[in-house]
């Protein structure tokens, strides 16, 4: 079990509000108090890192001297910094890379990492597909838009990462198929908003099925309050066993039942020869 040293935390939140990285990122002021307009973000960061640490504890990564993490679509880096902070406190000597296509975000985060003294935290201005750095113990992608979530899941599956954590966002791929579908399930849904919600659920459930087919144990969690964001579903997958054709057969039946052709994650897995249907 990871033993993170106690701090004088605001209302028992996991991360000390006086942490240097929170000041560098503008969440806390110079006095170490969380800024009123950043309190929702602070709670979200604390909740995420709690879930992340709980799950990294269940993997063999905690027995290593170094834990490697890749954050795809790292943005302003709030969660990336929090993971580094908590893994460091646990004595795990993390190496974390954040990848984002917005150069201004990357520059801001690299400057904040230097200010915080986080030597093994680096941010890179490029697409995740172009960032090839080998194996990572954990892959994280929060609010990666549409099929970018599938790219992140595939990266983790292909490299057999011990932990994959994603929060999907803006899903449209399955919706196109459902709009054309003539299955019995489709005829009862006439409102476009309901069809979009169904497409979101089908997409995420498909991702869960495909992760299970690759030997991952999957949890689906609401990780923040909907007052902060409507996109609050977290998919957390821990590598537990060898691939299982059974779960892929279930996924194939699922596609036929709801009348969609598949998702990008399936296509990526097929191209890489990871689909086992025998």
Write up what this structure looks like.
- By secondary structure, this protein is an alpha/beta fold.
- It has a domain at 10-171 and 215-242: Vaccinia Virus protein VP39 (Rossmann fold).
- 40% of the residues lie in helices and 16% in strands.
- It contains nine helices and seven strands; from the N terminus they run ααβαβαββαβααββαα.
- It has a seven-stranded mixed sheet, with helices on both faces.
- The radius of gyration is 20 Å and the shape is globular.
- The model is unreliable at 5-10 (pLDDT under 50).
Task: Summarize the topology.
Layout: H1 20-24, H2 39-56, E1 68-72, H3 78-89, E2 95-100, H4 103-116, E3 121-125, E4 138-145, H5 148-158, E5 163-169, H6 173-180, H7 192-213, E6 216-222, E7 233-239, H8 245-258, H9 264-271
Parallel strand pairs: 1-2, 1-4, 2-3, 4-5
Antiparallel strand pairs: 5-7, 6-7
Helix pairs in contact: 2-3, 5-9, 6-7, 7-8
Brief synopsis:
This protein has 278 residues and is of the alpha/beta class. The protein contains nine helices and seven strands.
CATH fold label of the domain at 10-171 and 215-242: Rossmann fold
Helix count equals 9
- For the largest beta sheet, what order do the strands appear in spatially? 3-2-1-4-5-7-6
Give the class from helix and strand content and strand pairing: alpha/beta
Question: What CATH first level of the domain at 10-171 and 215-242 would be assigned?
Answer: Alpha Beta
CATH homology superfamily of the domain at 10-171 and 215-242: Vaccinia Virus protein VP39
Total strand segments:
7
Spatial shape: globular
The sequence of SSEs as H and E is: HHEHEHEEHEHHEEHH
Unreliable runs:
5-10
Name the CATH architecture of the domain at 10-171 and 215-242.
3-Layer(aba) Sandwich
Main β sheet profile:
7 strands, mixed
Separation of termini? 39 Å
Query: What percent strand?
Result: 15-25%
CA-atom Rg in angstroms: 20 Å
Oligomer state equals single chain
Helix fraction, binned, reads 40-55%
Average pLDDT figure: 87
């Amino acid at each position: 079990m990871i033993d993170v040293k106690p701090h004088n935390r605001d209302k028992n939140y996991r991360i000390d509000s006086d942490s240097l990285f929170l000041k560098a990122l503008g969440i806390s002021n110079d006095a170490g108090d969380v800024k009123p307009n950043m309190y929702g973000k602070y709670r979200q960061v604390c909740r995420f890192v709690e879930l992340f640490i709980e799950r990294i504890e269940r993997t063999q990564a905690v027995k290593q001297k170094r834990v490697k993490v890749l954050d795809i679509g790292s943005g302003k880096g709030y969660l990336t910094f929090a993971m580094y902070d908590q893994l460091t406190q646990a004595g795990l000597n993390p190496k974390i890379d954040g990848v984002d296509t917005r150069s201004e975000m990357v520059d801001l985060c690299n400057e904040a990492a230097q200010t915080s003294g986080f030597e093994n935290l680096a941010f890179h201005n490029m697409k995740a597909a172009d960032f090839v750095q080998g194996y990572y113990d954990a892959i994280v992608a929060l609010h990666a838009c549409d099929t970018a979530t599938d790219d992140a899941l595939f990266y983790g599956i292909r490299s057999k990462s011990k932990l994959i954590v994603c929060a999907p966002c803006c899903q449209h791929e399955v919706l196109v198929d459902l709009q054309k579908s003539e299955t019995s399930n489709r005829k009862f849904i006439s409102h476009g908003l309901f069809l979009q919600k169904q497409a979101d659920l089908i997409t995420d459930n498909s991702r869960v099925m495909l992760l299970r087919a690759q030997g991952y144990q999957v949890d689906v969690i609401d990780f923040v309050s909907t007052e902060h964001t409507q996109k609050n579903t977290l998919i957390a997958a821990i590598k537990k066993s060898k691939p299982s054709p059974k779960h892929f057969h279930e996924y194939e039946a699922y596609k036929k039942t709801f009348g969609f052709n598949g998702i990008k994650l399936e296509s990526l897995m097929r191209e890489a020869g990871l689909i086992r249907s025998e």
